[in-house]
Amino acid sequence: xxxxxxxxxxxxxxxxxxxxxxxxxxxxxxxxxxxxxxxxxxxxxxxxxxxxxxxxxxxxxxxxxxxxxxxxxxxxxxxxxxxxxxxxxxxxxxxxxxxxxxxxxxxxxxxxxxxxxxxxxxxxxxxxxxxxxxxxxxxxxxxxxxxxxxxxxxxxxxxxxxxxxxx
Length: 167
Fold this sequence. Notes:
It holds the Pfam family PNPOx_N. By secondary structure, the chain is an alpha+beta fold. It is 20% helix and 43% strand. It has helices at 21-30, 68-75, 106-120; strands at 5-7, 34-39, 45-50, 53-55, 58-63, 78-83, 92-103, 127-129, 132-135, 138-154, 160-165.
């Protein structure tokens, strides 16, 4: 069942309408770059860009086990992923809030590896073994973020702010 959209009139132009959830999912599916925000052990934020794949109603990303974001997620799984454009009056920005959960089932990882390569090309080819993606000499942990809340920001007339809540 699709989440209910709540258009916030305080931040939306008159006549603005909330996009249908399937249209938002299409934006998540097509977006090539996301910014991930995690929390360091001392409470400071950490933000970095990365590719992500929308599959099975969740965003998926990968990271090396020693990278800052992986170490942050060990202590605090709360995460925000954002995507959109850096243009003021064009496009649509999305903010996905949720908890990152490790994906380690090799069959599921193979399906995600295929999705990565279809979306990003052969540079992002991963082998799967031992619950990880493998690429060259390194390995990567894979995480799933099922949305808890998604915010959408329509830019340009009509401007809009929409919230979708899950679960």
